[in-house]
Amino acid sequence: MTDMRNEMDSDLDQNYSLNSNADPKNMQELTIYNVQDKFQTMSDQIITRIDDMGNRIDDLEKSIADLMNQAGVEGTAPEK
Known about the structure:
The protein has helices at residues 2-16, 24-71. It is mainly alpha-helical and 80 residues long. The radius of gyration is 25 Å and the shape is rod-shaped.
């Protein structure tokens, strides 16, 4: 957590060091907003990937059940 804070402080120093009239409170709020935005984007991507994996697993289970039926092998049906 300290490393992330140091990175954010470093980024702020680099991005706003030329603007001596910048209000630190506004810079801090901007940084917090940017971090929250990045976190939300990453969370959305993770959730999408999990949903995609779930769909692929469902499709795979259906394919396996179909193959087992074609081969005449009785098995347990996938639970839903």
